[in-house]
Design brief:
- This protein is about 15% helix and about 35% strand.
- It has about 120 residues and is an alpha/beta fold.
- The protein has one domain: Sandwich (Hypothetical Protein Aq_1857, Chain: A).
- The strands form two sheets. It has a four-stranded mixed beta sheet with strand order 3-2-5-4.
- A hairpin with a 2-residue loop joins strand 4 and strand 5.
- The radius of gyration is 13 Å and the shape is globular.
- The two termini are about 20 Å apart.
- The mean pLDDT is about 85.
Length: about 120
């Protein structure tokens, strides 16, 4: 796993509120976005240290103490941009913790084509 060049992930107030509520109810959390199909194409929220990250995962930074990992191939495909964690309506995919009742986490990508 590589460490971030700088904090490359931020969050909207709605996402920060959801993280705060999850931490109050469940303890520390972490985010992983694998870049796979289906559920892997959105950020997944897990209790901290429940998901084992590997050498192919990039630590983009932390949001209010919650680490956010992204698959390095997906990061490369998206041009090593910056990411904004947000929430949207609908149930979460896979085993992700919800961002609230009938809400899930999403990422918004800001491409940085100047990085090679």
């Amino acid at each position: 796993m590589t460490t971030p060049r700088s904090e490359r992930v931020t969050a909207t107030p709605a996402a920060r509120d959801a993280i705060s509520a999850l931490r109050a109810a469940r303890g520390p959390v972490m985010f992983v976005q694998s870049g796979g199909c289906c559920g892997g194409s959105v950020p997944m929220c897990f209790p901290a240290k429940e998901f084992l990250v590997g050498a192919g995962d990039v630590l983009l930074g932390e949001i209010d103490g919650a680490p956010f990992y992204l698959d390095s191939r997906l990061d490369e495909a998206w041009g090593h941009g910056s990411y904004v964690l947000d929430v949207a309506d609908g149930d979460p995919d896979g085993f992700s913790l919800p961002a609230g009742p009938r809400r899930h986490f999403v990422t918004r990508v800001h491409l940085d084509r100047s990085v090679s």
